[in-house]
Every structure is written in C-alpha cells, then in structure tokens.
Amino acid sequence: MMISSHHSGRLLGLYLLFVGSLLLGSCHTHRFASGAPGTARDSMPSAMGADDSIVQRADGNRIAYDWFATRIRVEYSDGKSEIDFTAVVRMRRDSIIWLSLQGPFGIEGARVLISPDTIRAVNHLSNEYAVQPVSSLTRMLPIQASIRELQDFILGYYLHLSGLVPQYRGIEDSLHLLHAESAQLLYRAFLYPQNYTMAKSLLTDKMAGQQMSITFGGYAAEAGHPFSEDRTIGLKLGEQAYTLHLSYSKVRVNEPLDFPFEVSPGMKRSDRIRFE
Fold this sequence. Notes:
By secondary structure, the chain is mainly beta. The chain has a single domain (5-257), classed as outer membrane lipoprotein receptor (LolB), chain A (Clam), CATH 2.50.20. It is built from three helices and 14 strands. The chain has helices at 8-19, 50-59, 147-155; strands at residues 67-77, 82-92, 96-102, 108-114, 118-123, 128-133, 167-172, 175-181, 185-191, 198-205, 210-222, 225-237, 240-253, 268-269. The chain has a 14-stranded mixed β-sheet. Strand 12 and strand 13 form a beta hairpin. The longest helix is centred in the first third of the chain and has 12 residues, at 8-19. The chain starts with 7 loop residues before the first helix and ends in a 7-residue tail after the last strand.
C-alpha cells in the first residue's frame, strides 16, 4: 500500500472500519486440528440447558488476559479497489484499545486510541485529529459498540450482546447453531462440534440495513486456548460492500504495554472521524 495525502482521509476511514473487524491470531504457534465439520452426534449437548451448555463451552475458549498485542496484515477490497496495510494492535482488558495503521517500511498513517467512552484519532497525512464518542462506531458496525464488545470482537469470542438471549437451534451444516434475535439485531453463530470454536457468524442490524459476516480459519493455540489466525470479514453497509482478509503474527499475551498517543502542535481538529 502506498500511503499518500490523496488517500489519507480514506485510510483513516479504513482504519476505523478495521476497528470493528479485528480478530485475534498468530502465525508462530502450535496448530490445533482444523476443526473441520465431522460427525456431531458425540458432541451434542443434553436437552436440558442446551442453550447455556453450548455458550459455556464456547466461552471456555476465552484467553485469560490483562494485556494483549498483535500485528495484523489486512487485505481490503470494496469491489472497485484493493489496499493492503498493517495494523499494530495493543489492548488492556476492559480499558484501552490502541491501534497503529502502517504502510510500507512501517510508515504510520494514522493512530487510534479507544477508551471506554471515547475514540481519539490522529491522521498524520492530513495533519488532523478528531475525538468522538465510542457510540459513533455504530455508523460502521451493527452493534452498540462498547469497549468490551470491541475487545471480544478482536479476540474472536462468541459475542454476548445486550438484550439478546442465545437459543440453541441444533446442528446446521454439521455445525452447532446459536441464534439470538431482538427487534433490531440478529446474531447467528456457528460452532465446530469438536471444540466449540467459532466457524462463522452473521450479525445483522435489521433497522439500519447493516450486516457483518465472519468466517474463522487457521486455528492455532495461544496461552493454551484455540483461536483463529486467518479470517475473512464481509461488511455490507446499505448498498456498499467491503471485504477484509486478516492474517496475524507476533502475538503477545500478558506482557505490560504502553499506549503512546500525542496530538502534534499545529494539527487541525476535525469535527468528526471520517468514515469515507
């Protein structure tokens, strides 16, 4: 990706699009079995408490972390153009998400710092900065974007969305199906029967016409738990469709991190974080 001032506004939009699409992974770890669909009969839960049983088993794959960092290569396409870039991600549980968008040779184009209530972004190429509430991400994502939900998104967990009660719908295409729905949202999560890792998911905002689909592949082990290091995300926002393919490396768990963020003198404040 060649970063230039011509692309700077758009890249910041891609960066923020990416905030809702980051998933945990690593390229340098022991691999689990692929989790490919097989005979599901031995993995079926008992009829009593089936909904809770499946969710608890999915939650059993969560990594116990206070600090997390990774480097992710992102391949982006909107049907008209393609861009590759690298996102460096650092997190402190329930507290901070820090991201750096980089082009060739590690040249940084933008930086984002997300706290529980605020997004701060600097765009080095346009010499602008912006401050927005976390709720502004709902323009890009079909969820009410709290920092905990964003971190769960990044880590690839089953999402516990406010107001949605999961229901177990049995086996579909050799995968366990969890279905949760409200007047506004529809969430369908498909889990491999062997270890209850995520195979694919679909999240739809029925009111806003937004939809996100995710396929999870390349499962590996990190801190004793399985996670996906290779994911494809499809976003549909009205008539516009986006695809992001994510590849991960250099995962660090529970190593203390810093989160540097500065607004340089002379930077202009923008009234909003642009998503286009």
